[in-house]
Design goal:
The protein is α/β, with parallel strands linked by helices. The chain is built from 13 helices and 13 strands. It folds into 2 domains: 17-237, Aspartate Aminotransferase, domain 2 (3-Layer(aba) Sandwich), CATH 3.40.640; 239-358, Aspartate Aminotransferase, domain 1 (Alpha-Beta Complex), CATH 3.90.1150.
Length: 359
């Protein structure tokens, strides 16, 4: 197998004939804004999760904010969330005026620690945002026992299962992101889904304000376009292939790294992993501040683009202390390229780079 000398990117969208054709059809129709394609995409995603419906919006961040507003969360309310995650959930909480209660993670799974979440609960706790990171579900069973409404963030975990339940079908509200590098992409875009029709109607009221019989003070314009939705529908139709390809590449990486001291992705009993990211932990770096950056630079020299899976933990933005697992993940976690459009030649190039670093 020939190994190319080009850079293997950390991520790349899978865009082929179906996406191109459906986008051209929308362009030819001249109906570009929110319309029939958006409605089809909403129905398709709701059917996938087995939920009552969905409301497509302009981004995953917008989906988080309108979900919080639809649930009535505002000033004085507290929302629990993990520290080791992108900034979107924190920003959404802050924009609605609520109080973020950031907690630590379970280092093995990178997911919110149920015990840490329990200790953060107060009489003002209104909800808990549960991101399922890198393709692995959080421990929804343990989190449900806390008795707090759950908002599932499935931006990275479409198709994963927890105790035979599809991730995204458990919480009161479910959030999706369709950014260009997500499991299913529309370029930009997001969606709020739920089994509660009244909540969905409130989300629709917040998504747009044109021709509304009355105005909600929180209403804005965060609609998805038909052009985006058409691409999303094409992607949804082959999501099973995407997940199969990701699993196959993950198996190859595991075989390559077998016998090394790296901590490879774990899959606890009762859960499945869809490998949005293949994240390893380099335990020898736990006392090195810039260790991950040095490793990333070495991989780039070998033509492979790796990344820190989370740029900065939320507790550091908030200048909080007492998050040892999140800080350990920041110091030691590395994301290796894994996406459906990764070619066999590129997988071989990653294999050589992995062996050069850790053989």
């Amino acid at each position: 197998m020939t190994i190319t000398a080009t850079m293997v990117p950390h991520s790349r969208p899978f865009i082929e004939t179906d996406e191109l054709q459906t986008a051209i059809e929308v362009l030819r129709s001249r109906r570009l804004a929110q319309g029939g394609m958006v409605e089809q995409f909403e129905r398709g995603m709701a059917a996938y999760f087995g939920l009552a419906g969905g409301v497509a919006v302009s981004s995953g961040t917008a989906a988080l904010e309108v979900a919080l507003r639809a649930f009535g969360i505002g000033p004085g309310d507290e929302v629990v969330l993990p520290s080791y995650v992108c900034a979107a959930p924190l920003l959404a909480i802050q924009r609605v005026g609520a109080i973020p209660r950031v907690v630590d993670i379970d280092l093995e799974t990178f997911a919110i620690d149920p015990e840490a979440a329990r200790q953060a609960l107060t009489s003002r706790t209104k909800a808990m945002i549960v991101p399922h990171l890198f393709g692995l579900p959080a421990d929804l069973t343990a989190l449900e026992r806390l008795g707090v409404p759950i908002i599932e963030d499935c931006a990275q975990t479409l198709g994963a299962m927890e105790q035979r339940r599809i991730v995204g079908s458990v919480g009161l509200l479910t959030i999706c992101s369709f950014y260009a590098t997500k499991l299913l992409c529309t370029g930009e875009g997001g969606m709020v889904l739920s089994r509660d029709e009244s909540l969905l109607e409130r989300v629709r009221t917040l998504r747009e304000y044109d021709e509304a019989p009355s105005l909600h003070p929180g209403a804005t314009n965060v609609k998805m376009t038909d052009l985006q939705a058409a691409i999303g529908l094409a992607q949804l139709n082959r999501l099973a292939f995407f997940l199969e390809r990701r699993s196959s590449i993950a198996d190859e990486y595991r075989a390559t790294l077998d016998g090394t001291e790296l901590v490879k992705p774990i899959v606890p009993a009762g859960r499945t992993h869809v490998y949005y990211r293949f994240v390893v932990r380099m335990t020898d770096l736990h006392n090195q501040v810039n260790g991950v950056s040095t490793v990333i630079a070495r991989f780039e020299d070998r033509g492979v683009q790796c990344r820190k899976p989370v740029f900065r933990s939320l507790h550091r933005y908030l200048e909080l202390e007492g998050f040892p697992a999140s800080e350990e993940a920041e110091r030691t976690a590395l994301s290796i390229p894994l996406f459906p459009s990764l070619t066999d030649e590129e997988v071989a190039q990653v294999h050589v780079a992995l062996c050069s670093e850790w053989a």
